[in-house]
Amino acid sequence: MSEPLRKRLGANLRAERHRRALTQEALAEHLGVTARYLAGIERGERNLTLDSVDALASRLDLDALGLLTGRPPRP
Q: Over its length of 75 residues, how does the chain's per-residue pLDDT go in tens digits?
């Protein structure tokens, strides 16, 4: 059985946050959400809509598909 997509999204978001050397609080502020909400996303507890994933990726200057899969899009 494969890992739920929301868990994969959370892990990829956490990896991106670490890559940028940001705390949850700093990233949450940048995204306009609470640190508690962000922590829930990173743990895979939040079931985001596709529009929310798209907005989140946009705020991070990332491709939404890349954020979901953990891989940058092909050129």
A: 578 999 999 999 999 999 999 999 999 999 999 999 999 999 999 999 999 999 999 999 999 999 998 876 655
- The answer to whether residue 74 sits within a structural domain is no
CATH number for the domain that contains residue 38? 1.10.260.40
DSSP the chain: -PPPHHHHHHHHHHHHHHHTT--HHHHHHHHTS-HHHHHHHHTT-----HHHHHHHHHHTT--HHHHHHSSPPP-
pTM (whole model) above 0.85: yes
